[in-house]
Amino acid sequence: MYVPTQQRFVLILFVIFAAGCAQRGSIVPVMPSPGGGAGKASINRTIPVHVQTWDNLGGGDGITLNPWSLATPWLTYASTTFGDSAAIAAAQIIPAIYTNPNRQGPGDPMFTTDESTFAHDCSGKRIQSLGVGVGKFLMDPHSSHLGTLWHDYVRGGFIDGAVFTYIFEDKADTINKTSATPCNFNQKDWTSASNEMDRALGFTIVYNSLGDTGGQNGQPQIAPSFALNATSAGGMSEDCYVTMNVQPYQRDLGWQVKEDTEIDMAAAGKYFICDASDPSPAALSDAERIYYLASALLTYDPNTTIFETCFRTAKGLHVLPETQLVPTAPLVGQPTSIAGLYQSGGGYGREYAHCYYAGVDLGACAAFVNPNKPGTAAVPFPWPTKYLHTLKLSGGGVLDGGTATPIGAPPPATFGPTTATIAFP
User: Fold this and answer.
1) For a tag site, which of 16, 21, 84, 117 has the least CB within 10 Å?
2) Would you call 301 exposed, middle or buried from its count of C-beta atoms within 10 A (0-12, 13-18, 19+)?
3) Per-residue tens of pLDDT for the chain, all 425 residues
4) Do 163 and 84 touch, CB atoms closer than 8 A?
């Protein structure tokens, strides 16, 4: 029997989201959990149940879960401490030990009175760290003593029983947010010294500073720390597509350079941790979450793209339900720059032949973003008759009962500046 396309879509949704009765007249869509559940027969076991994810667990910056296994179905990597690493690894979450040899202050493990470990301005003064690093100093990667201190600190944690796969190196190869420029500073020389210090550590590194991007002659410029790929497994970009600023959306060149960085990291075979730095409540940030997700999925590589967000959640774990959306089989291959995904009417888009949610094949989907600055004209949605639904978010994080379903309203005909969507047939 022939069933019209839209009716077939509703019928499929009914099967996938096995309806249950919560209150009279209500239908509760139930997505399959990572361990199985509703729609289990439709789950493709060769497709991961979520994209790769990253969050902070334990220590001063991360949350504590009891047990850690509460995060296991949702979280791939955790930035953590030596002390918490073994238990987190036992929960089958990959630990990365947080370190910051590039900014040290009194009480920090690599802080000494040896002036050779500190960077200095041309008057011989130590250079202060600003922003969240107030009270610390910019360190000098040229210092062999600093490299030894870092190595001994990491090896000491390993000997004491820490279990980890990666060492996370914060503020790597950057002098951003400091009180002065090191005397006779040369970025290539600083990067070379940083690579030498990383190489001497003897452990696998993931660095942070890919967000320190720029522009030149109207063209996006990726961060100098991209060169640390020579000695690292990958890097993190803070302010990835959304930021903690009053205007939370990355746009224009700032947005383009994040996309190009995601592309270049995939081409290099290196992890790209895309850290959305907006700390707004997740349950009140649907537009920002969709903008981040659609932007990341435009240039998504399943082997290298890692999702991290800072949106606040009730239970503390920052993993959101939409990370269970895993696109496959892009209709257009990975471009060499984001310009390759520019649509004729404006905006950027990419289609996928198959999009899975928790392993269930939902069929095709498309990501579309208009990253232009406020005040510019709206742009048309490039596939107005092909996609009839959008991703709908409800609630907060995965531990809070948040949901993401492909049953939202049709995509609008036009998209204003800093808006985006994930669309379904």
Assistant:
1) 21
2) middle
3) 333 333 333 333 323 333 232 322 222 233 333 333 333 335 677 899 999 999 999 987 899 999 999 999 999 999 999 999 999 999 999 999 999 999 999 999 999 999 999 999 999 999 999 988 899 999 999 999 999 999 999 999 999 999 999 999 999 999 999 999 999 999 999 999 999 999 999 999 999 999 999 877 778 899 999 999 999 999 999 999 999 988 899 999 999 999 999 999 999 999 999 999 999 999 999 999 999 999 999 999 999 999 999 999 999 999 999 999 999 999 999 999 999 999 999 999 999 999 999 999 999 999 999 999 999 999 999 999 999 999 999 999 999 999 999 999 999 999 999 999 999 99
4) no
The answer to whether the peptide bond before residue 67 is cis (omega within 30 degrees of 0) is yes
Round to whole Å and give the CA distance between 400 and 206: 29
- CA–CA separation, 349 vs 381, rounded Å? 9
Q: In terms of DSSP H, where are the helices of 225-285?
A: 252-268
Which of helix, strand or coil describes residue 216?
strand
Tokens representing residue 32 in the block: 């399959």
How far lies 35's CA from each of 45, 48, 49, 359, in Å? Answer: 11, 11, 9, 10
Name residue, tokens 């050779």: 116
Beta bridge pairs of residue 215: 220
Alpha-carbon distance of 287 to 402, in angstroms, equals 15
d(CA 100, CA 60): 14
User: CA 181 to CA 196: how far, in whole Å?
Assistant: 21
Task: Enter the tokens of residue 76.
Answer: 């791939």
Integer Cα distance of 205 and 207 in angstroms: 6
Q: What SS3 state is found at 64?
A: coil
Q: Any idea of the CA torsion for 154, 157, 161, 163, to the nearest 10 degrees?
A: -50
- Looking up tokens 């002065």 gives 180
Residue the block writes with tokens 């007249």:
25
